[in-house]
Amino acid sequence: MEGGDENQENRAEVQTVCAGVIPGLPNTELKKLLSFKVYKRRWFVLVVLCLLNCSNATLWLSFAPVADQSARYLQVGLEQVNWLSIIYMIVAIPLSFATSWMLDVLGLRITLILGAWLNMFGALVRFLGTGISTDPAARFPLVMFGQTLAAIAQPLVIFTPAKMAALWFPDNQRATANTIASMANPLGMLLASILSPWMTQTTGDIPDLLLAYAVPACIICFLATVGLRSSSPPTPPSASAESSGSEPFVQGIKLLLNNRAYLVLMLCFGSGIAAFTCFSTLLEQILCVQGYSNEFAGLCGALFIVFGIVGAGALGLIVDKTKKFIEATKINLSLSAVACIAFSVVSLMPQQKVAVAVVCSLFGFFGFSIYPVVMELAVECTYPVGEATSSGLIFVSGQVQSFLYIVLLQALSKRLADSPLSTCGDAVLSWKVPMLVLGGLTCAFSCVFVLFFNTRYRRLEAEEQATYRTNTINSSTPESTPSEGKDPTD
Q1: Which residues have a Cβ under 8 Å from the Cβ of 311 and sit 6 or more positions away?
Q2: Strands 429-430, 414-415: parallel, antiparallel or unpaired by DSSP?
Q3: Beta-bridge mates of residue 486
Q4: How many CB atoms lie within 10 A of CB 477?
Q5: Are 217 and 59 in contact (CB under 8 A)?
Q6: Pseudo-torsion of CA 142, 425, 423, 214, nearest 10°?
Q7: Membrane-crossing residues (predicted)?
Q8: Could you tell me if 306 and 242 are in contact, meaning their C-beta atoms sit under 8 angstroms apart?
Q9: Domains along the chain?
């Protein structure tokens, strides 16, 4: 079902050959000698995951950059339009545990293909609800239903980078692969921030916008269904990949909840995810009060994501070489808190385009860059718990806090009777208090993380021990040929 028969046959064949070269070698040690191979197919798996992650993010943020036009076309208020984004958080919370179980038990292939089909159906239902339905009253319910299907797909996609990197990539490429796959999500947010304002000049352009997002979702579903043939390569790329997800799911959850370092990471980084979600969802509504256009808000969102991707790429390469996960996370999380506070101040000032753009860029550069590093750090401090379980609980924490933050910020906002600078249309809200509260929360959780988080790198320690034992066997059997670093064609 997941290519397991193919993998077992390949492993048996290689074991037979090696047994002839190294007679009497124990099975467990033989596996270690066979374990350090990588396959070119891993790049296709990475590309499919990136495309799927990107597509799902565009569906999530389709309406936020054009909240005013969406509200008028769907004949609802801005609060209902915000629920098209909030539904992602609500759906993800109960489904996250099921997704973690699926990844660690059923495997990568089934999880990704199911996510691709849900993502495609969600995109199609959204388009059909606006492009075909002639009843205006039916538009919002149909769009919300499609958005819910896409929201169900999100945990199936966004939990996967750490698992994919552990199963398919060697230890010196794991953080980079995780970074590439994880940053595909903000890349989708970037595309939505640019395409939505550009394609929606009038309210009647909404159906065309949703069609533009539905077509790629269909293509990606085809690639995932046809191209993903197995959950893992025939032989593992690292010592830890062989035991990936070795702890039973329920036992893994218990271990996580008793791991003090992990709980601090889950709470503090979950707050960071919530801050980024609030920023992406409410950016246009915050800036329009001070007279900034939708196009400028889209530009700020684009700068936020572009600099985040640049920062993530640079930090991923650095961490792959240095393995300094803790230092990188503490420094960048602290700087992102400072950038969030700065945004809370400058976003309340009119005619400060340069300052707003610079602060958004810095917020993205320091904030987004730590996401893939934290996913790797979560695995390091919880090994041998499955990667999907450790990264999944952090995502759940982020979604719960995101929902609470958005509800809190909306409750703290106040309707303004008059705002001469506003480009928001009829609904004009004051975001002064909510923004200051957001900056304070981000700062508080960053301080908690810096002061109280510390851990061992359990996965790296296990790999060093396995490598040492393998090298000992190799030195005693000169006839054997080391296989680490090979890249055989499938």
Answers
A1: 332, 364, 365, 366, 368, 369
A2: antiparallel
A3: 37
A4: 14
A5: yes
A6: 10
A7: 43-63, 83-103, 110-128, 140-159, 180-198, 210-228, 261-283, 295-319, 331-349, 355-379, 391-413, 433-453
A8: no
A9: 38-474 (1.20.1250.20)
